[in-house]
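Running this now, will post back.
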Amino acid sequence: MIVTDSATQEDTEMMMREQFEDVIFFPFKENVGFQAIVKKGIENSAGEYLLILNGDIIVTENAIQNMLNFLQANSSVGMVGPKLLNFNGTLQISCFRFYKPFTILYRRTFLGKMSFAKKHLDWFLMNDYDHKSPKDVDWLMGSALMISRAAIEKVGLMDPQYFMYMEDVDWCRRFWENGFRVVYYPLASMHHYHGKGSAKGGIVRSLLFNKYTWIHITSAVRYFKKFFGKSLPIHN
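Update: finished.
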């Protein structure tokens, strides 16, 4: 097991060294962003399949084995994500369709309450899907993913231009572009404490004062600039 940590406190590092001797621990003194700590873990890992988990994930019984069995039985699949649940047992949306340029504003501001925006967000959030059977999806939330080594070697790591947000969208898109399926697999479930820092406040307050909104927008601009003029991957 490998644990990577961003903006590590001295007490955390001491605890990891003393109480978890069998865990390979890589601390970062600064907040280096999600993709950087994932990169560090992957570069120091071994094995044919890799499991990426956020620290706020609780794994349920057999979830990891079920995901592994599915990947091993389906060589065309490069990435699989479990069904994520809130701690009250309700479904947490973790599979999505690809962003449109205006999706973020609809999600992060009062504009999302407008009828036209609600229709778009229903599409983006895949509310037409019952989340009960495995399904090929555009992209998966990066909080819990299992990935094949073969896919990573062809696709590469997360793009380092993203500090936070959009790195999972970009990565999944590149999996599709390289011929690997991305699959939501609800026969494995995990609990996730998910706080959306960039979703607070109205449009003016959010744009002026919420740094996470600006990070999200900055990452989105980089994403759309990178893929400008390129067709979206097509799948069933």
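The chain is about 35% helix and 20% strand. More later if anyone needs it.
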